[in-house]
Amino acid sequence: MWLHAHVGLWSLALILFVIGYIGLKAGWTTFLKVVQMVLRLVFVLVFITGARLVFIWYQAGNYGWPTVKGLFGLLVIAMMEMILTKERKNEKTGVFWALLLVGMIAVFYIGYGVLG
Ligand code: HEM
Fold first, then answer.
1. What is the pTM (predicted TM-score) of this model?
2. Which of 6, 35, 55, 65 sits 20 to 30 Å CA-CA off 44?
3. What residues contact 90, with CB distance under 8 A and at least 6 apart?
4. Which has the closest alpha carbon to 35: 76, 88, 74, 93?
């Protein structure tokens, strides 16, 4: 149940991030602000479901990979937030895109390859 919620929520977060980014590039600043508000709520829910999953792994005596997975998950969330905020202010985002890519690869590798 928690895993299904987690997967549904991070999928929604990725979709909202792409929609927000497209809106930003199209110059719809108000639209982006609304998308970003919803996205932040979804981030909180991704975190809550993720933290619950980490806790379930801890209860089973498994600490290493779940902790690393959680940290990379947080990196992905932080980078999506930074990219939208910095792009809106017309600041450089190259480093954040690179870290987002690293985070995504790690999260999918650990999520599906190691823990999945
Ligand atoms: C946008 C950010 C995130 C993405 C894209 C993401 C992605 C994923 C993916 C692809 C899986 C594997 C799903 C499966 O096996 O069906 C997963 C599982 C998991 N995630 Fe996340 N995640 C994110 C955030 C987080 C956060 C913030 C935490 C912890 C606080 C977390 C903790 C976990 C744990 C512990 C699992 C393993 C569940 C299991 O296999 O039992 N995730 N996540």
1. 0.96
2. 65
3. none
4. 88
Residue with the nearest Cα to atom 31 of ligand 1?
50
- How confident is the model over 61-70, as pLDDT tens digits? 999 999 999 9
Distance CA 30, CA 18 (A): 16
CB-ligand 1 contact for 71 (6 Å cutoff): no
Supply the residue whose CA is at minimum distance from atom 3 of ligand 1.
Answer: 73
Q: pLDDT confidence of 116, banded at 50, 70, 90?
A: confident
Distance 75 CA to ligand 1 centre (A): 12
**Atom of ligand 1 at shortest distance to CA of 53?**
35
User: What was the pLDDT predicted at 41?
Assistant: 98
For the purposes of burial, counting CB atoms within 10 Å of the CB of 47, is it exposed (0-12), middle (13-18) or buried (19 or more)? middle
Closest by CA position to 81, among listed 99, 66, 106, 67: 99
Q: How far apart are CA 20 and CA 36, in angstroms?
A: 7
Contact by Cβ (8 Å): 56, 2: yes
